Amino acid sequence: MTAGELPFFVYGTLRPGEPNHALFLRGRTAAEEPARLPGAVLHDGPGYPYAVRGGTGHVAGDLVHAAPGAYGGLLASLDLLEEYHGPGHPRNLYERRRCDVVRVRDGAPVPAWVYVAAARAVPGPRIPGGDWLSRRPLRGVPRTP
Fold first, then answer.
1. Taken in order 93, 55, 75, 81, is the CA torsion positive or negative?
2. For residue 11, what pLDDT band results from cuts at 50, 70 and 90?
3. Alpha carbons 142 and 51: distance in angstroms, whole number
4. Which of 5, 3, 113 is closest to 66 using CA atoms?
5. Which of 26, 8, 109 is nearest to 64 (CA)?
6. What three-state secondary structure class fits 135?
7. Do 27 and 130 form a contact (C-beta atoms < 8 A)?
8. Are 96 and 114 spatial neighbours (Cβ–Cβ below 8 Å)?
9. Where's the Gamma-glutamylcyclotransferase AIG2-like domain (predicted)?
10. pLDDT, tens only, 122-137
């Protein structure tokens, strides 16, 4: 990573084990580690979540560091996936913001890119605990009624 290349904080379908991780991140990362975004809440969406800044909660996710030489392509791919067209663009589904996230292993703050809900996003119900993975059944374990 060179100066100005921030890691990415992912909290939904880009997390390890989720479908977009395999499509967009596999083979393009140097490291991935658990982290959380303080001062935010997580909302359900139409198949993917929205992080909304504000409040006293936190969003659980992973800090993703691009592999050497992969940063530019990864940034462009994630901007496309997240429907980010530039700061404040009216067609944005997400805004890409520089935020301090906290590494779980040592509590250290780390600046990272985070895609947060943009003005045109319509967040659904809040996900208690701020963890996208908690709302899904464990793989291979049926959900009981």
1. negative
2. very high
3. 27
4. 5
5. 8
6. helix
7. no
8. yes
9. 8-133
10. 999 999 999 999 876 5
Q: What are phi and psi of 9, to 5 degrees?
A: -100, 120
CA-CA distance, 120 to 101, in Å (whole number)? 24
Q: In the annotation, is 82 catalytic?
A: yes
Closest CA to 24 of 93, 81, 86: 81
Residue type present at position 21: H
User: In one letter, which amino acid is 17?
Assistant: G
The answer to whether 66 and 72 have CB atoms below 8 angstroms apart is no
Q: How far apart are CA 121 and CA 51, in angstroms?
A: 10
Active-site residue, selected from the candidate residues 32, 82, 83, 95: 82
* CATH code reported for the domain at 8-121: 3.10.490.10
The two structure tokens encoding residue 129: 């605990």
Q: What is the pLDDT of residues 79-122, one digit of tens each?
A: 999 999 999 999 999 999 999 999 999 999 999 999 999 999 99
- The amino acid at residue 18 is E
Beta bridge pairs of residue 10: 62
